[in-house]
Amino acid sequence: MIEETHLIDLENISKEYDGTTVLANMNLYIRKREFVTLLGPSGCGKTTTLRIIGGFEYPSTGRVLFESKDITNTPPYRRRVNTVFQKYALFPHLNVYDNIAFGLKLKKLPKKEIEEKVNAMLELVNLKGYGKRGVDALSGGQQQRIAIARALVNEPEVLLLDEPLGALDLKLRKEMQLELKNMQQRLGITFIYVTHDQEEALTMSDTIVVMKDGRIQQIGDPKKIYDEPKNAFVANFIGESNILEGVMKKDELVNFAGHDFVCVDYDFEKDEPVDVVIRPEDILLVGEDAGQLIGTVKSVLFKGVHYEMMIDDGQFTWKVHSTAMQPQGSRVGLSIIPFNIHIMHKPAPIPEKEAEK
Hints:
- The chain is α+β, with helices and mostly antiparallel strands.
- The protein has 2 domains: 6-227, P-loop containing nucleotide triphosphate hydrolases (Rossmann fold, 3-Layer(aba) Sandwich); 241-345, CATH 2.40.50.140.
- It has 9 helices and 20 strands.
- It has helices at 46-54, 96-106, 111-124, 140-152, 170-187, 198-204, 222-227, 232-237, 352-355; strands spanning 6-17, 20-31, 35-39, 61-66, 69-70, 81-84, 158-162, 190-195, 207-212, 215-220, 242-250, 253-256, 259-262, 272-278, 284-286, 293-302, 307-312, 317-322, 331-335, 342-345.
- Helix 2 packs across helix 3 (111-124) and helix 2 runs parallel beside helix 4.
- The radius of gyration is 24 Å and the shape is globular.
- The two termini are 42 Å apart.
């Protein structure tokens, strides 16, 4: 169960390299027992954020607090965190047991205590009996588990994971996503996970932090991030979307694609320009006489669990996901219920001085 207590606070964190801003005034808190994912494209600042939390980088401005204590300039070995990198950095000259035991031996723990802790970790990562094997003889997925076991055996309060599943094939990656989440829940420690993979973020996280160009775009649980994106970037990055320009005529009435639609959004200015997002799975295919819009099916792709159809209504080409395939060239009606129309404010322009950086 996630506690409300703040474990880590990032206060007004900025980071510059050679005059280039990679993090811009970031404020973020992370709670005890929380699985937090930093999600965004390459270059958005997520790995830099992780490295600042771990002590491998120091911020240009701002503070890092751990249980309200300032650790901004504390070196990594004095922080109660451990890190698992994409390249697992296992010691090739040591077997599995000694790789996991390495940190415990540095602490000069008794041999029996080390043995108990290492065997418990091997069982946790489902590699009981693998202790004497060389790490080079293991598969990528097994090596990844050893790297996690080596980090966890030191009993950190926070585990930092920098795209640790990136080198695995799709099937194994999906299996490890579930294993990592189960592991985090059993251990009850805080995981901070970096990825550019939206599915990983949605599958594992309690909280997702979406980042772009060194700035946080949105923070929320997976359902809120998916169902209520704050802007077009989030809507496009988390899942697939139809994004159109529209005008909010009044509360709960929006105009887009040449038509007025009832929606459930309010607190917009009258005739305010907005962005409208509609997920492909939220568009219903109906008869021409029953549709709010009528279009022609331009293409059909079978995606395994559904068909993806591109449907042109003359003003906009809609991406529609449905289990009911309509043949290419056919005319169909499109129906969208008010709850599935999500309205977003247009993004505020970046201040001129920041835009110049």
